[in-house]
Amino acid sequence: MVKVLQYGVGSIGSKTVKALISKPWIEVVGAVDSDETKKDRDLGIVAGLNRRLDVKVYGSLAEALKHVKVDIVLHTTSSWLDLVEPQILEIIESKLSVISTCEELAYPWRRSPEAAKRIDEAARKNGVVVLGTGVNPGFVLDTMVLSLTSVCISIDKIEAWRIVDASKRRLPLQKKIGSGMSVEEFRRAVQKGRMGHVGLRESFDMIADCLGWSFNYVRESLEPVVASETIETEFFKIKPGQVIGVSQSIGGFIDGFEKLKLNLQMYLNAKNPRDSVKIEGVPSLEFEVKNGIPGDEATVAMIVNMIPRVLSAEPGLKTMKDLKLPFAWLKEF
User: Fold this and answer.
1) For a tag site, which of 81, 104, 161, 194 has the least CB within 10 Å?
2) pTM for this prediction
C-alpha cells in the first residue's frame, strides 16, 4: 500500500481524495490545509464525500508528519511557483516525493530557472522526486502533442488548440479567467500577472526543448472574451460587455516563420469545445478530441496515475518528458 498525504483540500484536492480512496493500492493517511475551518476535521467530511474516512486534516505538514507515515504527497494548492515553492521545499526537506498541480512547476526550467535549480538540488540531496503535472500543462498541449510527433520523420510546423467551455467548471477557474470583470479590470489583472490560464508558456517551452527548436522571436497574446448577451452560470450572471473568459496564444518564430503555436480559449459557453493538434511534416497529421478532455477529472487522474512513475524515478525535479509513458494505473503497485 502506498501511503498518500493530500496537501490542499480545495476543489481539486477534494476530487483527488475521492479518486485516491477508489484505488486498492493506495491508503490516504492524512491531509494538510491552512484553512482553519478544515483543521482537525475528518477528511471525508471536508472533501464532501458525505462519510467519514477516519483520516484527519492537519493545519500544517509538520503537524501531520508527527502522526502519520507518508510515502508521497499530492499537492494541490496554487498555480504560481512563487507561492508554492516554500511548500514544495518543506515537503522535500521532509524527505518525501511530491506530485503537484502547480502549473508553473510543470516545466520551470526556462521561466523560473533559479527556482527550478533550488527545487532540483534539494530533491537530489534528499533523495526524492518532484513532478508538476495535470491536464494542461501536463498533457493536452505538451505531452499529447509530443507523443504525436513520435510518428513524424520531420516537422515543419505544429499548431495546437484547447477550447474549453468554462460555464460548468468550478468557481476558482471561472474567477481565474475573469468572469464578470469589466475589460478594464481584466487588463489591470493581466498587468499584475494573475489573470488567465497559467502554464501555456511552460507547455511551449517543453515542446521547444524536446524538439530542439530555438526561436528568434516569441509572441504571446492574452485577450478577454467579452459577452455579447446575458450569460448565467451557477456562480455568475454576466451582462453584455463583461468578460466571460480568455483567449491566449503563444507562437515561436524561426527566420520569420511561425514554427510552433499553442492556442487556448477558455470562456463561458464556448462554441465547439475541443482539443486538437495539427502537424505539418512527414507525415502531416491532424488529431482532435471532440468536446475536449474534461479538465478537473483529467487533472486528478493524471496526478494519481503518475504516483507509480514518480516513486520509481531517480531523485530530482522531473517533468513529463523525463518519466516513463503515462497510462491509467488500474493494477496493483
Assistant:
1) 194
2) 0.95
In Å, what is the CA distance from 78 to each residue of 82, 152, 183, 324? 10, 36, 25, 26
Q: Where are the beta strands (DSSP E) in 101-187?
A: 129-132, 154-165
* pLDDT number for residue 224: 97
SS3 70: coil
Is there a domain that residue 326 lies in?
Answer: no
The identity of residue 260, as a single letter, is L
Chain mean position to CA 262 = 16
191-211 pLDDT, tens digit each: 988 788 899 999 999 999 999
Residues 297 and 74: their CA atoms lie apart, in Å, by: 15
In a 13 Å sphere around the CA of 303, the CA atoms on its Cβ side amount to 38
Amino acid at 163: I
Q: Is residue 331 part of a domain?
A: no
State which residues form the domain around 79. Answer: 2-135+297-318
Same domain, 34 and 20: yes
Number of domains observed in the structure of the chain? 2
Most distant CA pair in the chain: distance in Å?
A: 61
